[in-house]
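ugh ok so i messed up the first submission bc i forgot one of the chains. this is the corrected input, ALL of the components this time, i swear. 736 residues overall. if the numbers dont match what u have on ur side tell me asap before i send this to the collaborators (the ones from the other lab, u know who)
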Amino acid sequence: MYKWLLCWRYLRTRYLALVCIFSVMLGVATLIVVNAVMGGFSTKLRERLHGILSDVMIEAHDYNGFGNYHDKMERIRRDPYLAEQVVAMAPTLEIFAIVQYRMGFQEVYQRANLVGIELESRSAIGGFAEFVVKRPNAPKFELDAEGRKRQELLRQRGEMEIPTPVPPLPGAGPEFPPGIEPPPAGELLPLPEPPPYRDEPFLPPCCIIGHAMAHRRYQESDKPAIEVPILPPGEEVIVTTISGGRFAPVNSVFTVCDYFRSEMSEYDSNYIFVPLDYLQKLRAMEGRVSSIQIRLKDESRKKEVVERLKQLLGEGVLVQTWEDKQGALLAAISIEKGILNVLLFLIIAVAGFGILAIFSMIVVEKTRDIGILKALGASHLGVLQIFLAYGLLLGLVGALCGTGLGLLITHYINEIEALLSSSFGMEVFPRNVYYFDKIPTNIHPSQILFINVCSILIAVVFSILPALRAALLHPVRALRFE
Amino acid sequence: MNDSVPLLAVQGLHKAYRKHKLVVPVLNGVDLEVQAGEFLCVLGASGSGKSTLLHLIGTLDAPDSGSVWLEGQRIDNAPAHQRDRLRNATFGFIFQFYHLLPELTALENVLIPAMMERSLWSWCWQGRTLRQRATQLLERVGLGHRLHHQPCELSGGEMQRVAIARALMNQPRVLLADEPTGNLDEEKGEEIVRLLRDLNAQEGLTMIMVTHNRDLVAPTDRVVRLVKGRVEPTQNPVVAHTPAIFELPRRVAL
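and heres the new structure output, hopefully the right one now
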């Protein structure tokens, strides 16, 4: 009983101990805020990574894609287990490309990911239709009234006369280098047809283009950033890519009809969605796709589904989950978080050395009291427990205050960020990096518990040495201590 | 000295303090017996080893050689937990410099020895009773109105009275008073000694008081003198002449 009374009294009267509490509090608060923000980023990133990727995907090993995709989808539908698990499937043809457009008097060339999709099936997969800006959840490859008006205006002004890329020569294709056998004629895909050009009556197909690709972000000092559209609906872009099989360059004009905004910088600045059948024709890959995206009824069953798909489809295709595909990125985030936690716990360990130093001072200060307690019958263990309990109380109070402070900062992190930004005149959290409107946070109670337990443990461990010193003090020498 | 087993016995007690190669002998074979209910005054000059003797009797320190006996049981070499228990329940210490815990109130200081032998749980059951006892003790030493004052808010005499109440809390069998008036003025010193003497007379509490001040000795006390680390029986110095303090009216209502 006397141990707790003395601990409590020491806690209330030793202001030096407040330094220990303060250092533990700061350490715990920092850990909670950093973990909450990193957890928030991680969760949001996972959501977005998963958002655009389906649960499971069947992919081709190379740019030629795979044929008979209708047949493969049919086989999946007929399989009893898969039919139960699979909610939707979307054939997709994805290829790198170069986008060319005019910005003022300047020609702009930009790398892009060209994705051929069927709107209906791709929307059923999820992670697409909801990110379309002008017609959310009801995307269409056609211009709205405003877009048509702009297209008309541009055509009348003659601004559509963007330089026509050189069409590939019929029969052109890469020569097979000496020593490499060309595949048998039957297995070679046909050469692409020359695409339709300006001299023919031609209405370019529509495309849904990444929001970041179609906009530029400007910021003047002291003013919020503004986004200026450089490719508004009705504008045309030339997309150059390669054909399947022979890798002949092919190109086509597309009209921008909508934007895709997933808030993932990488996707929003790279992706162009075009009609699947048009891209197949352009790349001379009729009946072939690069992947089949699959949405599952229960995402947690994805491993079993992958195994079943591998059995069903054999080695000709690559079957993987979205996590397998983004494994490196997810692992990097996890490692980053782990390392940061280790570093931050070192901060608390430094606070622990502070506790050690301050505790040693307190033990010296309390030497006579220790002598008195021993004269009154306190055991070595009793004195040891007083100082260990004191360390525990310091850690506990520090951790609790730190938890409160950490949760408060996490709750008001956006307000704090705004205050810091306005005070120092610089953007603390640049929104164009992640396209998050707010700093995402995610608090796990188990993580807070872990941080608290570790901090309290550190406080107790660092008070062992001074507590031992106190316990082993000779009572007579302690009583005579001046 | 009667033939029955004495309450306390000290035989051939030796104690020396050492610093590096320097050895300072303090006690050189002290033999002493104390009967229950006795008021023993140990007189001696400063540095004669009076406090050391008290520490050895109260098991606060261990002798180099010799032994300490309590009711025929040797206690100087008892296990640590047993000695802790003896200091808590059998002996009550009163120090020259009061030695109160500065963070606690007078009442809490008195309660500390009772808390030591009780867990938090048993305190929940017995706390109220013990608190009442501590309050009664403080009232008895004339501090019923200063229960919640901290040591820094009390005078020297009041602090010493709190220390006496604390020493009495666990109903000890022996009170060991180490120069209890050494830090007080004459008037306050008299009050304290009168208090101790009353406890001895009314409750039969065995008392060992060490002091260098022969004026504190009463005609009824047994007196021994510590000279060169040995006990020399001596005649009560006040048998012939009673000091003025014993003729003064009592100031402390007991």
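quick check: The interface with chain A takes residues 55, 58, 60-61, 80-81, 84-89, 93, 95, 99-104, 108, 112-113, 115-120, 123, 166 of chain B (CB under 8 Å). that seems consistent at least. The first helix of chain B runs from residue 50 to 57.
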